[in-house]
Amino acid sequence: MRSRTAEWFETKIKYEKTMEDGMQKKVTEQYTVDALSFTEAERRITEEMSSYISGEFEVSDIKKAAYKEIFFSDDANADRWYKAKLQFITIDEKTEKEKRSNVNYLVQASTFQQAVNNIVTAMGGSMIDYVIAAVTETQLMDVFEYRKTEKDDKPEME
């Protein structure tokens, strides 16, 4: 189990997909990419998808993700993505009242129960009290992390 904090963008891709029966069907799939801006997110998802999709496709939507951190599973069967809302519990020193702050995460798992287990594992080293307020399965197909390339090391021409 590993986690990654970054600026994540959720994207939607529309394209003609060849189904198992050989028929063509227009589909929209969701992906998450690690990027610094909307422009970079569009460029990155276009680069990533061009190796998977033969033919034309369209980036139909890009939005900032409601989460900054993703928990990646080591399980090869973990092919689903779950949004998890955790409430961190703190005590206000002045009023001595309990305060809850919501934080969203994306969790990779093969089942709902494994998603909950992965959250517990990822939060195991945390000293702060928390409650798992919600876990819902998403329609995300995959997450693309930033990978450094050779061209990133080359200085730009003046």
Give an account of the 3D structure:
- The termini are far apart.
- The protein is built from three helices and nine strands, in the order E-E-E-H-E-E-E-E-H-E-E-H.
- The protein has a five-stranded mixed β-sheet with strand order 1-5-7-6-8. A four-stranded mixed β-sheet has the order 4-2-3-9.
- With 158 residues, the protein is an alpha+beta fold.
- Strand 6 and strand 7 (98-109) form a beta hairpin.
- In what order do the strands lie side by side in the largest sheet? 1-5-7-6-8
Task: Indicate the structural class.
Answer: alpha+beta
Mean pLDDT: 90
Which parts are unreliable, with pLDDT below 50 for 5 consecutive residues or more? none
Q: Gyration radius, to the nearest Å?
A: 19 Å
H/E topology pattern: EEEHEEEEHEEH
How many helices does DSSP assign?
3
What does the overall shape look like? elongated
Largest sheet: 5 strands, mixed
Number of strands: 9
Q: Span from first to last CA?
A: 43 Å
- The share of residues in extended strands comes to over 45%
Helix content estimate: 10-25%
